[in-house]
Write a structure and sequence with these properties.
Radius of gyration: 13 Å
Order of helices and strands: EEEEEEEEEEE
Number of helices: 0
Strand content: over 45%
Number of strands: 11
Helix content: under 10%
Shape: globular
Distance between the termini: 37 Å
Amino acid sequence: VQLVESGGGRVQPGGSLTLSCLASGVTFKNYPITWLRQAPGKGPEWVSGINTGDGTASYADSVMGRFTISADNAKHTVYLQMNNLQPEDTARYYCAIPVGEVRVRDFSEVDWSGQGTQVTVSS
């Protein structure tokens, strides 16, 4: 199983980015995909997750209304559209396949994760 994140970068507050997570080695529509982030000196924080089978999405309160998760089963890719980014969104973002539910507390609750992509929000 391989998960590869891309799309990170540096943006100003209020800006937008779209992260991608390309999955290989799995039957894509059978697995939920979740996003976590980790800022320097802080523990991991769950951000959002999607059931790729039916498209059911969930979000952390901190990103609700600003982030949108979606899946393209044909491309084996999950996207995280991030709007109105703020400095507190600065972190390394990881996609992962959870052990169970998409809402996870940390990496101990995921089976596989990628290397992450850095998002920096700064003026």
